[in-house]
Model the fold of this input.
Amino acid sequence: MKYHTPYSFEEAAKIAAQASGTTRFLAGGTDVLVQMRAGIVLPEELIDLKKIPGVFDMIRNEDGRWRIGAAVPGAKLGANDALVADWPGVVEGMELVGSTQVQGRATLTGNLCNGSPAADGVPALVAAGASVDITGPNGTRTIAVEDIPAGPGKTTLTKGEVISAINLPARGNNGGDAYLRFIPRTEMDIAVVGCAVNLTLDGDVIVAAKVALGAVAPTVIVADEAAKAILGTTLDDAALDKLAAAASAAANPISDKRGSREFRIEVAGVLARRAAKIAYARAKGE
Amino acid sequence: MAKDEYREFRLVGTRPDRPDGLDKVTGRARYGADMTAPGMLWGAVVRSPHAHARIVKIDATKALALDGVKSVVTRADFPEGLTGEDWNLQENTIAGERALYDGHAVAAVAATSRFLAEEAARLIEVEYEVLPHVIDVDEAMKPNAPVIREGVSDATVPEGMSPNVVRKIEFGNGDVDAAFAAADLVMEKSFKTEATHQGYIEPHACVGQMGADGKGEMWVCTQGQWYIRKMCSAVLGTEASQLRVTPSEIGGGFGGKTTIFMEPLALALSRKAGGKPVKIVMSRSEVLRATGPTASASMDVKLGMKKDGTLSGVKVEFRMQGGAFPGAPTEFALYCGLAPYTFGAVEAVGYDVIANRPRCAAYRAPGAPMGSFAVESLLDEMCIELGLDALDVRFKNAVVTGDRAAYGPKFGSIGFVETLEAVKNHPNLLAELGPNQGRGIAAGYWFNHNGETSVSMAISEDGTVQVSVGTPDIGGSRASIALMVAETLGIAYEDVRVNIAETGSLGVNEPTHGSRATFASGKAAVLATEAAIKEMCKRAANEWGIEPEAVEWKDGAARPAGPNAGQFPPMTIKEIGAAMGSTGGPISGHHESLPDGVGASFGAHVVDVEVDPETGRTTILRYLVVQDAGRAIHPSYVEGQYQGGAAQGIGWALNEEYVYDDKGRLQNSVFLDYRVPLASDLPMIDTVIVEVPNPGHPYGVRGVGETGITPPLPALANAVRAATGVRMTHLPMSPSKVLAALKAR
Done:
């Protein structure tokens, strides 16, 4: 195995593009190192991104947009009051990843690139309308977060491409987001179902909404019908019922050791209802 | 200060610091994987990816070609001709003609580093012919089920049953049909429990060394060093006394470390590698796939009850699979499930069944939790049906000292009624319950065990005391034994050091199993101490020139037994120890026996739960364990055992299970998906120690380790029933299952 410490994303992309064997980028390492220890992935090229200037930066632009560097650990998100105020759902999603110790290393970008359908960091990013900056052999590009996952353990990133940062839009006024997951235990578990809701109000009426579901399909799902169900409403019981039904309808899970298909479909609706209530309360400033 | 009608105690019943505490919190304690030896090699094991397959060919050419690979062993390196249990142990250690379960060891390799050994293991090519498999116990009993192995069944199995049924257990008394006819209510239900693993945090680890002459050493994480010695010697065809086995500290065992798994492989690899020591440390996945979980069970229960709650008859049939070898604890499930009550008529049948799963090992009160789940669940349902209080009905039918157990023997001194009294008086029963909340009560039982025991103790030159026991300290036995020896001698707790001895320094000891260590090693240590006291009195008598019978031992010193014995100042243990080199040589005591006077332990648990009606998820609001300890030598450890048993039972009831795919491969061989309860899942578990002293032990000890895992399964099921109206008959009560049951309501 070769261990690389590039000083720019261009250099990192170049090393990856020229590699012939299994390649892994290393930021927090909470997935990569565990997989290596277990013998699941034995990379020939390990490219450590942490020497690249700016990877630990988390910046709020004057217009309210956020840029979160690829190596910013989860613990830094929850410790940033302004980020928690803007995007509490994004922060609570990331904070569900692993233990306190893991939070000191694990990154949002890594959670996304690991490609797990159950990634807790991802649905709230999708609901928030987040994008990622990608550096590759052919330059840079920016795409929506929901376009990265391609199935369990897979992403749409092509050979040599590496994510340098995650961008969150400006929160604006009267908005709120929330993420909930279902696990049988209270901690240290993998989502059986995850659901993020992001919405904006005009008075009491929802004027923008996005709903994302995790762990109910090979990739994170954007549940457009679920969002439509609450648009133009005050999140009354009828709207919540429609939301739950639409979220359940959007779910297309498998049955596995973590839960049955029927259970996941049912609980997708339950979580959508509960997450929407939290997001709504947050948008109201409650 | 604890006391009974005879005595007050100075130390017994107090809570001093644990003797191993500092070592454990500073990392100085040495566990299985901490051992290294000069020139040591690392071993890795090749395991079957199939549930059932014929082994066509094993080719280690590529592995052996790697620089640094020192030996490879297959079944061909082990002696032929073993029979009975020895053959079972050997076959489970390393597969012969067929791999019998996913994870079954097929070959092993030793190399100069762990990475190299693992790489070499990947290079060993095994050709398999996959065979039909069976996982579920009821499926395995069907006439057309794939046959694991012919000729395993003993004479108890009737003609015409599947060869996978290897043992039938039957007992009973009275006429159950007449009893049911006379009952006001007869109900029957079927129940299932899934296999669960002990879930000890420390994986199996050992360093084994053996020369061509068959002389060997082993350092190993185990509950029983003599079992390791006996079993490894049998599997390898060597002599037991030529293998010296030293136990490490142990990070949990719960019965799962009372047998062998990879230990003979380490010795065989060493023997083939010129006697270099070989270390093997299992991964978590290997632990879950290839060591012994408990059995899975399928159970039918039929009960008859009078309107006033009196039980009139019981009929049970339990079917349990314990993996690919005989040994499912079906009889213990029957005995313990029926132990708490007088039933009138009894008809009990059990089957021990083999299937393509890892060989089950003991797990904390083996079988008892399943039996209790079936019987206590149905009992609860009948109380609801007749509008009776669950606790009152248990009082009404509870066994008392002298009653004959459903399975035959008469109970000696027991404290079940006293346990139920303590439940009745506990404030948790007054806590108010809200919507979707419910309370469940259940009782449980474990026999407790004596077992082969050998202990020695010796007085040091400074008057302090060393005690050597053969039972590894899993649950506080060192502290408890030190307390009892210090109490007996009348010296300070800190002046007694209890060591866990290797096999070369004591007679044979059974493992720490059956909740026996504090009872059996403790009793033997007290008897050994009394022998040393006798010798110390003799030394004093010689010094004083009086008869030994005229000397008594009190408060750490020999004293004249009365005014007629003469006027001499007390001779302390320090003085006797300092002088012993010139008064007759070393002073020690020893005791070897199957200590008699085992005292059984009953317990009762009360749990309050809340079930989320939208997700089926169960939250534990409060949990109470009440159990008869006989006497709690070190109450903190007793409480720890109660809480630990409850925690494991809660896991079994709610989320733990072996999940197999349609090819018979284990799907959840990591702790992420094998869901043991976390600290954050549980409230502080309340405990009440009931003390009905066991007259068979010098300090009244019963043994407390196992009973505590028995009531949680039915207590949780009864609480979920109370919270939801739904009777869950198939464990675990995972959210998926509960939600499906709620929707079907």
Q: What stands out?
A: Chain B has a mean pLDDT of 97. The longest strand of chain B covers residues 311-321. Residues 32-132+202-289 of chain B form a domain with the Aldehyde Oxidoreductase; domain 3 fold (CATH 3.90.1170.50). Chain B has three domains: 32-132+202-289, 367-448+599-744, 450-593.
